[in-house]
Amino acid sequence: MAVAVTADSRVLIIGAGCFGLSTAYHLLKRGYKNITILDRSPSVPAPDAASTDINKIVRSSYSDIFYARLAREAIEAWKDRDEWSDTYHECGVVVVGASKAAYTDNSFTNDIALGARTEILSNPETIRALFPEGVRTGSFQGISGYINRDGGWAFAAQGISLLMEKVKSLGGQIVPGKWQSVAFIQLTQEEADRYRNCPVYLDFISGFYIFPPNSQNIVKMAIHSNGHTFKDPSTGVAVSSPRTSLSHGDDGLRIPKKVAQTIRNNLRMVYPELGEKPFSGTRLCWYTDTPDDDWIIGYHPTDSGLVLATGGSGHAYKFLPNIGRLVADAIENKLEPDLVQRFALNREHNQHHVSRTGPQAQELDVTDLIIPGDLLP
User: Fold this and answer.
1) Does the keyword Flavoprotein apply (predicted)?
2) DSSP line for 185-246
3) Is residue 3 part of a domain?
């Protein structure tokens, strides 16, 4: 049985990331007075957190109508410049997949049902026409999909920093205390100007996605896959644990050689010109995944004083403005019954299409990570 919680209850939140900060914000907006957030990092936002990144995709293109609807709500919130400044950039999201692929088809159906501004991309010519003049693209042979113009990307670190300041201004106290591979390319000013107005490109076949350049002229790309796990041999603990720049210095930024090559191969298919430029850096983003990509939000089955809000599964950041509302509802026992079941820790794995590609998560082989020469084309 969950404990009775009031606005005077003392609430301790572990982790000043997407879930933690958004939860604190929504509780404080509801009148809670005693909110404290603890974070393992000596500085916050934590420099090695997945949410402390240059950008994250903001899309409503989900095969599950619940997430599609929640994402539409989040996008409307992101557009409020008084709240989020210029964190959100609406450049559109190109969604491609194999013909009759369930995830892509269901995503399109949901976007249409929710009123998104979409256009079908039925052939390579319609895809190429989306990119600015002067941008050399791949052939896109055998690829189809659609563009959702109600989407784009968010400057991730800025969003976290802004929300942190909101939490502090409302009286919240912040106390400092699986891997996805990402690569970056540094563009010249002339190159960046050509690519600046490109849409986000998201391929549900390969999992590859790429952003337009940010204000520092950096292009980020990654593979949305089941990624890698890392079990620290020094501890003997059989639980995947973070391996980041804080725990392993620059060595914690290196990605597997095979993944780096896969990213480059996909880059060449979208932007052949950029595929011949060296990577300026790489990063391993630490995610907490669930088998069905649904989050874990709710009271622990055997501890009435503990609420879990985790399992972001690589798709939580876009919901930074509103995911905390779900957690606050769970704390106050106001979460809708179907969501209580969806997000339960001890649930049966929900049966719906997930967006991750490739095999199950692989164990990270630290002897096969990239070296400086692997950054070259």
Assistant:
1) yes
2) EEPPHHHHHHHTTPPEEEETTT-EEE----TT-EEEEEE-B--EE---TTT---S-----HH
3) no
